[in-house]
Amino acid sequence: MQIVTTQSVPGREIDESLGLVVANTVRARNIGRDILAGLKGLVGGEITAYTQLMVEAREQALRELEAEAGKLNADAVVGTRLMTSNIADYVAEVYIYGTAVKLK
């Protein structure tokens, strides 16, 4: 299945729009990562533990979006958008949505 941010799939024509598909994941930081992040904050630079946490969250949200589109027998998801937000202290959400479509 193709998941694209554009309104169409390059080289393909959309036959039918199947509707909105959404997925999200909520992740909490852990104390071990927080200690390392605090130390890294003193000297600056990338906090790789948090980067990895967000990579894993994004990949999970993408898998779930694909599964939701699959339930509709979609060939692709177009107009895909991804957002992040803080739900509470130490808790972040990755939210992804797009339009499931059938291709000709």
Explain what you see.
The structure is a single chain. The protein has 104 residues and is an alpha+beta fold. It has a single domain, classed as 2-Layer Sandwich (Translation Initiation Factor IF3). It has helices at residues 31-43, 48-71; strands at 2-3, 14-28, 76-88, 91-103. The protein has a 4-stranded mixed β-sheet, covered by helices on one side. Strand 3 and strand 4 (91-103) form a beta hairpin. The protein is elongated and about 55 Å long. The two termini are 14 Å apart.
Strand order of the largest sheet: 1-3-4-2
Number of helices: 2
Percent of residues in helices comes to 25-40%
Radius of gyration: 17 Å
Low confidence ranges: none
Domain tally: 1
Number of strands: 4
So what's the overall shape? Answer: elongated
Distance between the termini: 14 Å
Structural class: alpha+beta
What's the quick description here?
The protein is 36% helix and 41% strand. It is of the alpha+beta class. The chain has one domain: Hypothetical protein apc22750. Chain B (Translation Initiation Factor IF3), CATH 3.30.110.
Essential attributes:
single chain, 104 residues, alpha+beta, Translation Initiation Factor IF3, four-stranded mixed sheet, 2 helices, 4 strands, 36% helix
Question: In terms of topology, how is this protein built?
Answer:
Blueprint: E1 2-3, E2 14-28, H1 31-43, H2 48-71, E3 76-88, E4 91-103
